[in-house]
Amino acid sequence: MVISLNPPERLSPVKGIRLATAAAGLRYRDRDDLVLVEICEQAQTAALFTANRFCAAPVVIARRHLAAAQPRYLLINAGNANAGLGEPGLDDAQVTCAALANAGGCRETEVLPFSTGVIGERLAVEKITSHCSSLVGKLQEDAWLPAAQAIMTTDTVCKGQSRQLQLDGKAVTITGIAKGAGMIRPDMATMLAFVATDLEVGPEQAVRLVREATQQSFHCITVDGDTSTNDACVLMATARSGARFSELSTPAMQEFTRALNSLFLSLAQAIVRDGEGVTKYICIRIEQAHSEKTARDIAFTIAHSPLVKTSAFASDPNWGRIVAAAGRAPGAALDMDRLSLYINGLAVIENGQPAPGYTEAAGSQAMQGEELELRLALGSGKATAQIWTTDLSHDYVRINAEYRT
Amino acid sequence: MVISLNPPERLSPVKGIRLATAAAGLRYRDRDDLVLVEICEQAQTAALFTANRFCAAPVVIARRHLAAAQPRYLLINAGNANAGLGEPGLDDAQVTCAALANAGGCRETEVLPFSTGVIGERLAVEKITSHCSSLVGKLQEDAWLPAAQAIMTTDTVCKGQSRQLQLDGKAVTITGIAKGAGMIRPDMATMLAFVATDLEVGPEQAVRLVREATQQSFHCITVDGDTSTNDACVLMATARSGARFSELSTPAMQEFTRALNSLFLSLAQAIVRDGEGVTKYICIRIEQAHSEKTARDIAFTIAHSPLVKTSAFASDPNWGRIVAAAGRAPGAALDMDRLSLYINGLAVIENGQPAPGYTEAAGSQAMQGEELELRLALGSGKATAQIWTTDLSHDYVRINAEYRT
Fold it and tell me: What are phi and psi of A192, to 5 degrees?
């Protein structure tokens, strides 16, 4: 099931970025599973990678290469995560980079590898290397949509977004694609996102923009709390629009940042809407916290509570579970007598007690829709946080229990 | 389903403790749901309560009364948690204590209230107060088993343990009962444990003993990570055996501590064996960690991973999920190249790579039983931790989704 999510009809090309896809047959039949992204010279690329210490070989190599050079190519495969294999996995990732560098006429460090899929199986390297030359030959600007489709693993809907802006009179495009349907999908690891703009952005600005955009998007979603071994998020700024971020007027700069953040957020929310076994798309909003960290900790504790998630699945206004999860969040200095809870706008708890006039029937009614907002006001400050998550359904258990059996 | 857990056939009386039960009809029909425990004078009682800031009214009152006086009575009800009700809930708990104090001829502060059950519904106070006199009249030493049955909520098996010791030639008894089948059961909150011994124990020793015993038992289990609003664990030392803890020989002191800890651990493990929807009883053992905290953090992160839990349900040796959960544990300084993983003794990963000769078939075989040991050696120190948990089954979702609908 998917909650109000359609695949993009079209994704706008970004000047300076060309893409190509191929069917390497790594895991899937009758579909493309290999993507090459070419980034023009003079572009600025920044990336964030998984915080999991058990990170996959391509993450290690991509980090190392990005520190050494500005990338000219991203080489992405779906179906095999190349994770949990030690030294041989690193060798495999490097062999694919070398083959692509040879075909593309660049240095090996100018290629970043990305993998998503099964953990613990060796990568069929030759299935990738044998496609490198033909991928380079097929590169074209208008191929974001097939790329979005080729990076899918167990996603049921492909995910992409474009924005067209006029910044101080100049046309600027942002286009991004993402994959992911759980933080980890069965053995199928990973969230990946690739976002490009033709705006010119300096190196420090690129890092700051990708960090800020990720902080309010991919860092605000959770399906099952399991950070994957392969998560990566890449921002490419090609400088081909003629507009330069640092020279924009303040309103144009704000417009670009807003558009970039909104695109990141849409991609992140698309991952939740397509989450494993999802039947409810849930926004958890914490208000009046004494710090943003507290607000986020409480929001994630609620989002990860199996009891909250199963009651959402049942459309059960089980507020005791929500408040109990808030009460055990790390470091939360909660005054339970000031706490109020609203479910899709309905006052359920006010100042620590059932709200006047609240009835179970009204609560049940508020829980019926596919989209839920759980809003918790703590009465202890001014900080807020907002995150998105799924419920915990029979299908979640089925998908994750039956995957390999 | 329950994993290898039978109800106790008999529980030994503890000199100085008398118990009585009654059917107050708070939630259940045709069963007792109210327990009175009388503690003799000169006894020493220590207790630990939930760390959840959203703690129930009886927890607030019990903490307050315990700080003011040594308790003479524990008044325990099942079926209603008296939680989430603000000031009226506190009043209700106090009214029941006052009624019991009146019937038992003691001060109100000498009564500790305990409740377990539905959150957010007012306690039917008169159903409790009307039984106080008859409960006092029915008190007897040999009533631990009916008490263990009367505190059950959605437990499927009643939980109790006794130990008979000879300490320096004197007979000493320890008997304890517990309830719980999830950290929180649907709305049914809580783990409760009441343990008594006729050994004489000083006030500071009592606190230390209950802390240490709890640390290696109830603090080492998790079903769904949801600390309840009503958790409480009480140790009563009646001093009626003629033996005094502080005067025991070193071997006898060690024997008592071992017996107490083992009784606590058995009760804690019984809660997991009767966990919601359990089909696998899982011990997670972390070895060679650089600190016990790291070891515990990693163990709990693995235990709470929905992906690890669902693969255990499927008897799937999905080691990537276990290692990925370890890799995201808070503050873990993991060197993935030194990590080894054993499933029921079978080497799955050694030094960060699939173990030589490991096959999926052997892994599947190792996962088949109802009891699993996941042992992770980190290769970075000498600290260990061991915790117990359940899998995540269709029944867990069904139980928790369908409870109120």
Answer: -125, 140
